[in-house]
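Why do we care about 3D structure at all? Because function follows from shape, and shape follows, mostly, from sequence. That is the central idea of this module. The next example makes it concrete: a single protein chain, its amino acid sequence, and then its structure expressed as tokens.
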Amino acid sequence: MAMHNPYLTYQQNAVATSSPQELTLMLYNGCIKFIRLSAMALEKSNMEAKNTNIIKAQNILYELRSSLNMEMELSASMDALYEYMIAQLVSANIKNDSNLLKEVEGLAEDFRNTWKQAMEQAK
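And the structure:
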């Protein structure tokens, strides 16, 4: 008999019923969450958890990059910034550098906050 996980069901429903704009916001929030979790793991010298969470954050950034409409002028700049953030996460992972994690977290928060404002203005 399979275990029923209400939180997992809630998450699946939230994703399935969200607009593309809301999904993008979820991606930014997830990226920030995984960067914070990796920083906490680094603090506790849990290298496996640090690595796992950095990779999750990188995967989200790859997903955000793949969703860019490169016909729009702004997308080239966004793509370069996402690429930079991914490179910084790779460096943070290799060097165990919490300052690089903080830098990428700050950029992800800026993106998220700007996206949230744009969503509110579009309503």
